[in-house]
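Handoff note, outgoing to incoming analyst
You'll be picking up this chain. Sequence as last confirmed:
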Amino acid sequence: MLDKTYNPAEIEEKHYRAWDESGAFACGTRPEADTYTIVIPPPNVTGSLHMGHALNNTLQDIMVRFHRMKGDDVLWQPGTDHAGIATQMVVERQMEKEGLTRHDLGRDRFIERIWKWRGESGGTIIGQLRRLGASCDWSRERFTMDEGLSRAVRKVFVELYKQGLIYRDKRLVNWDPLLHTAISDLEVEQREVQGHMWYFKYPIQDEPGRFITVGTTRPETMLGDTAVAVHPDDERYADLVGKMAVLPIVDRPIPIVADEYSDPEKGTGAVKITPAHDFNDFEVGNRHDLERINVLDRDARMNENTPDHYRGLDRYEARDVVVKEMEGLGLLERVEDNAMMVPYGDRSGVVIEPWLTDQWFVDAATLAKPAIEAVEQGRTRFVPRQWEKTYYEWMRNIQPWCVSRQIWWGHQIPAWFGPDDTFFVEETEEEALAAAEAHYGKAVELRREADVLDTWFSSALWPFSTLGWPDATPEVARYYPTDLLVTGFDIIFFWVARMMMMGLHFMDEVPFHTVYIHALVRDEKGQKMSKSKGNVMDPLDLIDKFGADALRFTLTAFAAQGRDVKMSESRVEGYRNFCTKLWNAARFCEMNECAPDPTFDPAACTRTLNKWIVGKAAETAAAVEKALQDYRFNEAAGALYQFTWGTFCDWHLEFAKPVFGGDDAAAKAETRAATAWVLDQVLHLLHPIMPFLTEELWEHMGSGRNSPLILSAWPDLPATLVDAGAEAEMDWVVRLIGQVRAVRSEMNVPAGAKIPLLLKGASADTAARLERHRDLVERLARLESTGLVDGDLPAGAVQAVLDEATVVLPIAEVIDIGAEKARLEKEVARLDGEVAKHDKKLANANFTDRAPPEVVETERERRAEAAQARDKLAEALARLAAI
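Most recent structure output, in case you need it:
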């Protein structure tokens, strides 16, 4: 007998270990089957499970378990990312406590130390994914720095270089002056700060007393100005275009150019152009062939290209000196307060500098063209479809991809420099030495490029490098391209697009057929989770408290396409109650001897009740399968919840109680078998979302099962199992009882009070249904009696319509009608006021335009909830008024 209480902690580890040890997660066990492949977005080796991981991996696991049960040869490819900067920082912080820096160890010993750390602490998130229930093929786990993937990285880099698609150039990058490396846009955090706009007057050359005024938020960079730009249609400056301004402090003549980058409506309409320190200015400089003057060093201090008294100053110290000097020259026109976005390194916490430096770049524009075409042609589709627009916008405006990083942990770029800095790009040092000897005509010493590759470079190869490429492995042939990628919208460009580019270039095929973009997990108010707000929810804490299945079902139930998931502990607790409901239902079935019968034929049921529940199970199976195939995870969860809690537990089991306690042996046997069969279907359908509980019940409820539930076949229930007559009859019973219960609740009828029910205008079929199910209706609706009426209705009765009949419930003797009217009027008025308050807020442009979209959406949802509650009570009030 099942325990009285469901305790997830007792069963989760047991079943996961059994699945893993039995090879249930392994691919390749069904060589004749269709394949279904997902590659996991590799979490950082430094990471711990957060709510975004929990949502992402729950959705992947649902699809993997669903297709495994459908009979496919499933590969869910796991692994972790070496996370260059993040991992290096973790280890360097450890060393700081020992008074060491990486330079004290040297590169080789430092990298050895990172590998040691990875062996000891780098598997944390994998263990956490297991606790969530992720059914990856762990025997195939990969790491972006393992030898196989490293070989793939070297091959790709060298081939792209030799095809002219990787090159070395001096361009602007996001430079972190604390970490001393270029970083990606994803590692840049934009923060709003209250700064200033300084307006400086630049003298016009050879026109004493005439100036052009420019605004800047960064006075220190003016020392690197090489032009002033104005809009070509701005008549104020038309006569100045082509003339020279004199850059104060350094007395350098700089041209005044016409460029549409300048906005005549912003500031003075004239902007200073510093190509070496601003991404937009860099493009203006390219268009006008301007000099690039770098005035900062790697520490963001003023360098040798600035006047002597500036050299060595920190950028902010230099700012103060520039402003003071310009004021002293009489060239500071005014200063204004200015709210602006400033880029910070998300790991270092310092302001990022656009810095001109030698880096390695990928010609992303060339690689992007086939990747754009593949989505246009439908070879890869985005779900929801709206994200295709985002993909196109990024890809059609793509810039060269800086792939070099000035750190030690990562894939060292396979390039070697000769004595004159000529470089040789080869997969091995031996090949580079041979190439250098051919170039110089003699053997020479080479110096290895110290930079490593951007972490996203190796991640871009993930769908095929994890399968063994560049070797022609059986796995590459069988499992590439993959079927589905599940990821967040924030890395569509950084990861999805780059996998598309690399997959098409090296494999001649898209890496995945479908990209499902899930939304963010926010708190219950719709706010983004952050440590500073104190609203972060730890999925492991929720698993400890409520079980993995409750967390998984919560995430799934709220994973509507295009809508953020609003999480709260109370919601997880609610779905823990759902787990308990299923557990108790199984226990009830066991107590009433509802055991699986291998000879049971659901199509052969004779009793209306059993025909009805079998048909409902078939309808639910079809709805859940379609929802999963369409990636409408919330609809799958909703259908399962409604059928399991509502139709099966609340209705069928209640309807079956008199049968189980009755004397009709044939009816009892069929109902027991049908109930056990339906419970089995519930376990199958719920398994992808709630694997632990369903596996436990599957194991307990049926002795001698041929396989664990994880490997059992997905239900294939024909539509012919739906008996229209049985469905119409039992659904009518459910609606009648539900309507009576609703009236009792709305009118505050005491729970112990039994009232009569009369049907007016009932057809012969309806009258016959009432007669057949009279006992059920009276017991479950707590009625004194049921009957038919044709003439005058009794006084003090409320009425409701059910199909062709009117339901009449005399309640005047059990409630104070006047008091109930007053109560309902007061509650309707209160809700009217609440709706009006929400309407006023939503009509306020200051709120709708300035508040975060998720906050506005929450306000709309609360307004809708209040309006729905008001309308329902207004209907009840109208019924009372009609008495």
